[in-house]
Amino acid sequence: MVFAIEARQLTKIYDGKTKALDGVDLQVNPAEVFAFLGPNGSGKTTLMRILTTQFRPTSGEAYNFGLDVVQSGAEVRKIIGYVPQETSVWADISGFENLLIYSKIYGVPSSRRKKSIEDALQSMGLEEMANRMVKTYSGGMVRRLEIACALLVKPKILFLDEPTIGLDPSARKAVWENLTSFKREYSTTVFFNTHYMDEADIYSDEIAIINKGKIVKSGTPSQLKHSLRSEILQFHSNHFHSNHNGIDENILRNIRDLAFVRDVVLCDSKLDVFVEDGEFALPLIIEALRSEGVSIERISATRPTLDDVFLKYVGTLSFGRGGK
Ligand SMILES: Nc1ncnc2c1ncn2[C@@H]1O[C@H](COP(=O)(O)OP(=O)(O)O)[C@@H](O)[C@H]1O
Ligand SMILES: [Mg+2]
Q1: Does domain 229-303 have CATH number 3.30.70.980?
Q2: Is the distance from the beta carbon of residue 43 to the nearest atom of ligand 1 less than 6 Å?
Q3: Are the beta carbons of 151 and 158 closer than 8 angstroms?
Q4: CA distances from 94 to 141, 150, 286, 300 (A)
Q5: pLDDT the model gives residue 318
Q6: CA neighbor of 38 nearest in space, from 159, 204, 213, 203
Q7: Nearest residue (CA) to ligand 1, atom 7
Q8: CA 132, CA 97: separation in Å to the nearest integer?
Q9: Topology agreement, domain 5-226 and domain 229-303
Q10: Is residue 57 lining ligand 1, measured as CB closer than 6 Å?
Q11: In angstroms, what is the C-alpha Rg of the chain?
Q12: Tens digits of per-residue pLDDT, 250-274?
Protein backbone atom coordinates (compact mmCIF):
# COMPACT_ATOMS: atom_id res chain seq x y z
CA MET A 1 0.00 0.00 0.00
CA VAL A 2 1.24 3.48 -0.80
CA PHE A 3 1.20 5.92 2.09
CA ALA A 4 -0.52 9.27 1.69
CA ILE A 5 2.54 10.86 3.28
CA GLU A 6 5.87 9.25 3.93
CA ALA A 7 9.06 10.84 5.25
CA ARG A 8 12.37 9.10 5.69
CA GLN A 9 15.12 10.58 7.80
CA LEU A 10 14.04 14.06 6.87
CA THR A 11 16.48 16.70 8.08
CA LYS A 12 16.44 20.45 7.64
CA ILE A 13 19.27 22.71 8.69
CA TYR A 14 18.70 26.44 8.15
CA ASP A 15 21.72 28.59 7.29
CA GLY A 16 24.09 25.77 8.12
CA LYS A 17 23.31 26.08 11.82
CA THR A 18 19.68 25.76 12.95
CA LYS A 19 18.66 22.12 12.88
CA ALA A 20 14.87 22.43 12.56
CA LEU A 21 14.27 18.77 11.65
CA ASP A 22 16.51 15.98 12.78
CA GLY A 23 15.83 12.66 11.07
CA VAL A 24 12.03 12.61 10.92
CA ASP A 25 10.38 9.34 9.87
CA LEU A 26 6.67 9.53 9.23
CA GLN A 27 3.94 7.42 7.66
CA VAL A 28 0.40 8.66 7.19
CA ASN A 29 -2.29 6.36 5.82
CA PRO A 30 -4.70 7.55 3.13
CA ALA A 31 -7.95 9.10 4.38
CA GLU A 32 -6.49 9.50 7.85
CA VAL A 33 -6.51 12.66 9.96
CA PHE A 34 -2.99 13.10 11.25
CA ALA A 35 -2.09 15.60 13.97
CA PHE A 36 1.44 16.87 14.29
CA LEU A 37 1.83 18.18 17.80
CA GLY A 38 4.69 20.18 19.25
CA PRO A 39 5.71 23.34 21.05
CA ASN A 40 6.75 26.52 19.28
CA GLY A 41 9.93 26.20 17.29
CA SER A 42 9.86 22.40 17.31
CA GLY A 43 9.84 22.12 13.50
CA LYS A 44 6.15 21.71 12.63
CA THR A 45 5.96 24.41 9.99
CA THR A 46 9.30 23.38 8.53
CA LEU A 47 8.05 19.84 8.00
CA MET A 48 4.82 21.07 6.46
CA ARG A 49 6.68 23.40 4.11
CA ILE A 50 8.87 20.52 2.93
CA LEU A 51 5.89 18.20 2.46
CA THR A 52 4.11 20.89 0.44
CA THR A 53 7.22 21.44 -1.77
CA GLN A 54 7.93 24.99 -0.53
CA PHE A 55 11.25 24.13 1.14
CA ARG A 56 13.82 21.54 0.20
CA PRO A 57 15.06 19.20 2.88
CA THR A 58 18.78 19.27 3.70
CA SER A 59 18.72 15.49 3.56
CA GLY A 60 16.23 12.64 3.64
CA GLU A 61 13.21 12.00 1.44
CA ALA A 62 9.51 12.66 1.49
CA TYR A 63 6.64 11.45 -0.67
CA ASN A 64 2.97 12.30 -1.10
CA PHE A 65 1.16 9.30 -2.57
CA GLY A 66 4.51 8.03 -3.80
CA LEU A 67 5.48 11.32 -5.47
CA ASP A 68 8.84 12.70 -4.38
CA VAL A 69 8.36 16.23 -3.02
CA VAL A 70 11.71 17.35 -4.47
CA GLN A 71 11.78 15.48 -7.80
CA SER A 72 8.06 15.74 -8.62
CA GLY A 73 7.05 19.05 -7.06
CA ALA A 74 4.64 20.06 -9.82
CA GLU A 75 2.75 16.75 -9.62
CA VAL A 76 2.66 16.90 -5.84
CA ARG A 77 1.16 20.39 -5.96
CA LYS A 78 -1.70 19.05 -8.11
CA ILE A 79 -2.89 16.66 -5.42
CA ILE A 80 -2.49 18.75 -2.30
CA GLY A 81 -4.19 21.70 -0.68
CA TYR A 82 -2.37 23.90 1.83
CA VAL A 83 -3.60 26.47 4.32
CA PRO A 84 -0.77 28.43 5.91
CA GLN A 85 -0.91 29.71 9.44
CA GLU A 86 -0.88 33.31 8.24
CA THR A 87 -3.98 34.89 6.71
CA SER A 88 -4.27 33.92 3.06
CA VAL A 89 -7.43 35.69 1.88
CA TRP A 90 -8.14 39.29 0.92
CA ALA A 91 -10.33 41.27 3.30
CA ASP A 92 -11.60 43.98 0.93
CA ILE A 93 -13.44 41.64 -1.41
CA SER A 94 -16.15 39.02 -0.86
CA GLY A 95 -15.65 35.38 0.02
CA PHE A 96 -16.92 34.45 -3.44
CA GLU A 97 -14.38 36.74 -5.12
CA ASN A 98 -11.58 35.21 -3.06
CA LEU A 99 -12.65 31.77 -4.21
CA LEU A 100 -12.83 32.97 -7.81
CA ILE A 101 -9.26 34.29 -7.64
CA TYR A 102 -7.97 31.09 -6.07
CA SER A 103 -9.80 28.95 -8.62
CA LYS A 104 -7.93 30.86 -11.34
CA ILE A 105 -4.60 30.55 -9.50
CA TYR A 106 -5.19 26.80 -9.18
CA GLY A 107 -6.14 26.51 -12.83
CA VAL A 108 -9.67 25.22 -12.29
CA PRO A 109 -11.15 25.25 -15.85
CA SER A 110 -13.70 28.06 -16.27
CA SER A 111 -16.45 25.54 -17.08
CA ARG A 112 -15.97 23.95 -13.66
CA ARG A 113 -15.33 27.08 -11.58
CA LYS A 114 -18.90 27.80 -10.53
CA LYS A 115 -19.48 24.27 -9.31
CA SER A 116 -16.10 24.10 -7.52
CA ILE A 117 -16.81 27.35 -5.71
CA GLU A 118 -20.32 26.25 -4.73
CA ASP A 119 -18.97 22.93 -3.44
CA ALA A 120 -16.19 24.64 -1.46
CA LEU A 121 -18.61 27.13 0.10
CA GLN A 122 -20.98 24.35 0.99
CA SER A 123 -18.20 22.17 2.45
CA MET A 124 -17.22 24.92 4.87
CA GLY A 125 -20.78 26.09 5.60
CA LEU A 126 -20.27 29.53 4.05
CA GLU A 127 -23.01 29.70 1.42
CA GLU A 128 -24.83 32.53 3.15
CA MET A 129 -21.67 34.54 3.66
CA ALA A 130 -20.39 34.24 0.10
CA ASN A 131 -21.24 37.74 -1.05
CA ARG A 132 -20.22 39.59 2.07
CA MET A 133 -16.88 41.38 2.32
CA VAL A 134 -14.37 39.25 4.17
CA LYS A 135 -13.60 42.11 6.56
CA THR A 136 -17.08 41.57 8.04
CA TYR A 137 -16.35 37.89 8.78
CA SER A 138 -15.52 36.52 12.24
CA GLY A 139 -12.11 34.88 12.73
CA GLY A 140 -13.69 31.45 12.41
CA MET A 141 -15.39 32.34 9.11
CA VAL A 142 -12.12 33.69 7.70
CA ARG A 143 -10.46 30.42 8.59
CA ARG A 144 -13.25 28.43 6.97
CA LEU A 145 -12.92 30.56 3.85
CA GLU A 146 -9.18 29.89 3.72
CA ILE A 147 -9.85 26.18 4.00
CA ALA A 148 -12.59 26.46 1.34
CA CYS A 149 -9.98 27.99 -1.01
CA ALA A 150 -7.75 24.97 -0.48
CA LEU A 151 -10.68 22.64 -1.18
CA LEU A 152 -11.42 24.10 -4.63
CA VAL A 153 -9.25 21.46 -6.26
CA LYS A 154 -10.61 18.59 -4.09
CA PRO A 155 -7.12 17.75 -2.87
CA LYS A 156 -6.11 14.20 -1.97
CA ILE A 157 -4.17 15.62 0.96
CA LEU A 158 -5.10 18.74 2.86
CA PHE A 159 -2.29 20.38 4.86
CA LEU A 160 -3.35 22.78 7.60
CA ASP A 161 -0.83 24.75 9.65
CA GLU A 162 -2.39 25.54 13.04
CA PRO A 163 -5.90 25.66 11.55
CA THR A 164 -7.70 26.94 14.62
CA ILE A 165 -5.08 29.07 16.34
CA GLY A 166 -6.64 32.06 18.09
CA LEU A 167 -10.24 30.92 17.53
CA ASP A 168 -12.75 30.60 20.33
CA PRO A 169 -14.04 27.10 21.18
CA SER A 170 -17.27 27.36 19.18
CA ALA A 171 -15.43 28.65 16.10
CA ARG A 172 -12.90 25.83 16.46
CA LYS A 173 -15.72 23.34 16.65
CA ALA A 174 -17.35 24.77 13.51
CA VAL A 175 -14.06 24.48 11.61
CA TRP A 176 -13.68 20.85 12.63
CA GLU A 177 -17.27 19.84 12.03
CA ASN A 178 -17.08 21.15 8.48
CA LEU A 179 -13.68 19.57 7.91
CA THR A 180 -14.84 16.25 9.27
CA SER A 181 -17.84 16.07 7.00
CA PHE A 182 -15.77 17.14 3.99
CA LYS A 183 -13.23 14.47 4.84
CA ARG A 184 -15.93 11.85 5.14
CA GLU A 185 -17.39 12.75 1.77
CA TYR A 186 -14.14 12.86 -0.20
CA SER A 187 -11.85 10.55 1.84
CA THR A 188 -9.27 13.31 1.95
CA THR A 189 -6.14 12.79 4.01
CA VAL A 190 -5.81 15.64 6.50
CA PHE A 191 -2.44 16.55 8.00
CA PHE A 192 -2.48 19.35 10.54
CA ASN A 193 -0.12 21.06 12.94
CA THR A 194 -1.43 22.12 16.28
CA HIS A 195 -0.55 22.82 19.83
CA TYR A 196 -4.15 22.29 20.99
CA MET A 197 -4.05 18.86 22.49
CA ASP A 198 -7.78 18.49 22.95
CA GLU A 199 -8.17 19.01 19.22
CA ALA A 200 -5.61 16.37 18.36
CA ASP A 201 -7.31 14.03 20.80
CA ILE A 202 -10.83 14.46 19.44
CA TYR A 203 -10.28 14.84 15.71
CA SER A 204 -7.19 12.88 14.73
CA ASP A 205 -6.71 9.21 13.96
CA GLU A 206 -2.97 9.37 14.59
CA ILE A 207 -0.69 11.78 16.37
CA ALA A 208 3.03 12.41 16.23
CA ILE A 209 4.64 14.54 18.92
CA ILE A 210 7.68 16.49 17.81
CA ASN A 211 10.21 18.18 20.05
CA LYS A 212 13.37 19.93 18.88
CA GLY A 213 13.05 18.50 15.39
CA LYS A 214 12.65 14.88 16.46
CA ILE A 215 9.51 12.78 16.74
CA VAL A 216 9.42 11.72 20.35
CA LYS A 217 6.22 9.69 20.34
CA SER A 218 3.53 8.63 17.90
CA GLY A 219 0.38 6.55 17.85
CA THR A 220 -3.39 6.83 18.09
CA PRO A 221 -4.70 9.19 20.78
CA SER A 222 -5.74 6.18 22.80
CA GLN A 223 -2.37 4.45 22.42
CA LEU A 224 -0.59 7.59 23.55
CA LYS A 225 -2.73 7.91 26.63
CA HIS A 226 -2.37 4.24 27.46
CA SER A 227 1.38 4.50 26.95
CA LEU A 228 1.60 6.37 30.24
CA ARG A 229 0.40 3.21 31.90
CA SER A 230 -1.28 5.03 34.68
CA GLU A 231 -4.83 5.46 35.78
CA ILE A 232 -5.94 6.53 39.21
CA LEU A 233 -8.86 4.68 40.75
CA GLN A 234 -10.35 6.51 43.70
CA PHE A 235 -12.30 4.68 46.37
CA HIS A 236 -14.33 6.77 48.76
CA SER A 237 -15.30 5.18 52.05
CA ASN A 238 -16.18 6.37 55.54
CA HIS A 239 -14.25 3.40 56.73
CA PHE A 240 -11.05 5.24 55.83
CA HIS A 241 -12.24 8.41 57.47
CA SER A 242 -13.27 6.90 60.77
CA ASN A 243 -9.99 5.03 60.93
CA HIS A 244 -8.00 8.00 59.87
CA ASN A 245 -5.03 7.51 62.07
CA GLY A 246 -5.54 3.92 62.95
CA ILE A 247 -6.30 2.67 59.43
CA ASP A 248 -5.59 -0.93 59.25
CA GLU A 249 -2.15 -0.98 57.70
CA ASN A 250 -2.92 -4.47 56.49
CA ILE A 251 -5.52 -3.13 54.12
CA LEU A 252 -3.11 -0.69 52.53
CA ARG A 253 -0.39 -3.27 52.35
CA ASN A 254 -2.69 -5.85 50.77
CA ILE A 255 -3.75 -3.44 48.07
CA ARG A 256 -0.21 -2.27 47.49
CA ASP A 257 0.93 -5.88 47.20
CA LEU A 258 -1.42 -6.64 44.33
CA ALA A 259 0.86 -7.24 41.36
CA PHE A 260 -0.79 -4.67 39.10
CA VAL A 261 -0.88 -1.84 41.66
CA ARG A 262 1.85 0.75 41.28
CA ASP A 263 1.10 2.95 44.25
CA VAL A 264 -1.50 3.62 46.93
CA VAL A 265 -2.21 6.96 48.56
CA LEU A 266 -4.72 7.45 51.37
CA CYS A 267 -6.13 10.93 51.82
CA ASP A 268 -9.02 11.53 54.24
CA SER A 269 -11.84 9.27 53.16
CA LYS A 270 -10.34 8.63 49.74
CA LEU A 271 -7.97 5.92 48.70
CA ASP A 272 -6.11 6.57 45.43
CA VAL A 273 -4.83 3.47 43.71
CA PHE A 274 -2.46 3.93 40.76
CA VAL A 275 -2.78 1.17 38.20
CA GLU A 276 -1.86 0.48 34.61
CA ASP A 277 -5.22 -0.75 33.41
CA GLY A 278 -8.23 0.47 35.35
CA GLU A 279 -10.75 -1.86 33.78
CA PHE A 280 -8.72 -4.86 34.74
CA ALA A 281 -7.84 -3.63 38.22
CA LEU A 282 -11.18 -2.30 39.38
CA PRO A 283 -13.06 -5.52 40.20
CA LEU A 284 -10.00 -7.02 41.87
CA ILE A 285 -9.49 -4.03 44.14
CA ILE A 286 -13.18 -3.92 45.02
CA GLU A 287 -12.98 -7.55 45.99
CA ALA A 288 -9.84 -6.99 48.07
CA LEU A 289 -11.42 -4.07 49.93
CA ARG A 290 -14.66 -5.94 50.55
CA SER A 291 -12.81 -8.91 51.93
CA GLU A 292 -11.21 -6.54 54.44
CA GLY A 293 -14.67 -5.35 55.47
CA VAL A 294 -14.38 -1.97 53.77
CA SER A 295 -17.69 -0.75 52.35
CA ILE A 296 -17.15 1.51 49.37
CA GLU A 297 -19.44 4.49 48.93
CA ARG A 298 -18.22 5.77 45.64
CA ILE A 299 -15.61 5.01 43.02
CA SER A 300 -14.15 7.39 40.48
CA ALA A 301 -11.39 7.09 37.93
CA THR A 302 -8.98 9.60 36.45
CA ARG A 303 -7.48 8.79 33.11
CA PRO A 304 -4.40 10.50 31.73
CA THR A 305 -5.07 13.18 29.14
CA LEU A 306 -2.97 14.09 26.13
CA ASP A 307 -1.63 16.94 28.26
CA ASP A 308 -0.09 14.33 30.52
CA VAL A 309 1.37 12.53 27.50
CA PHE A 310 2.81 15.77 26.21
CA LEU A 311 4.28 16.64 29.59
CA LYS A 312 5.99 13.31 29.74
CA TYR A 313 7.55 13.43 26.26
CA VAL A 314 8.16 17.14 25.80
CA GLY A 315 8.50 18.12 29.42
CA THR A 316 6.55 21.36 29.19
CA LEU A 317 3.08 22.61 28.49
CA SER A 318 4.13 26.20 27.86
CA PHE A 319 3.54 26.93 24.21
CA GLY A 320 3.51 30.67 24.32
CA ARG A 321 1.11 32.34 21.93
CA GLY A 322 0.93 32.73 18.24
CA GLY A 323 3.01 29.80 17.08
CA LYS A 324 5.67 30.29 14.48
N1 LIG B 1 13.20 30.38 7.26
C2 LIG B 1 13.92 30.10 8.36
N3 LIG B 1 15.22 30.44 8.47
C4 LIG B 1 15.93 30.15 9.58
N5 LIG B 1 15.45 29.49 10.65
C6 LIG B 1 14.17 29.11 10.61
C7 LIG B 1 13.31 29.39 9.47
N8 LIG B 1 12.09 28.90 9.72
C9 LIG B 1 12.14 28.34 10.94
N10 LIG B 1 13.39 28.46 11.48
C11 LIG B 1 13.82 27.92 12.79
O12 LIG B 1 13.63 26.52 12.74
C13 LIG B 1 13.08 26.04 13.98
C14 LIG B 1 11.75 25.37 13.72
O15 LIG B 1 10.81 26.36 13.30
P16 LIG B 1 9.34 26.02 12.81
O17 LIG B 1 9.41 24.91 11.83
O18 LIG B 1 8.73 27.28 12.35
O19 LIG B 1 8.67 25.49 14.15
P20 LIG B 1 7.13 25.45 14.62
O21 LIG B 1 6.26 25.56 13.41
O22 LIG B 1 7.00 24.14 15.33
O23 LIG B 1 6.92 26.60 15.56
C24 LIG B 1 13.03 27.24 14.89
O25 LIG B 1 14.22 27.27 15.65
C26 LIG B 1 12.97 28.41 13.94
O27 LIG B 1 13.50 29.57 14.52
MG1 LIG C 1 4.66 26.82 12.94
Answers
A1: yes
A2: yes
A3: yes
A4: 12, 16, 63, 52
A5: 45
A6: 213
A7: 14
A8: 10
A9: no
A10: no
A11: 25
A12: 788 888 888 888 888 887 788 889 8
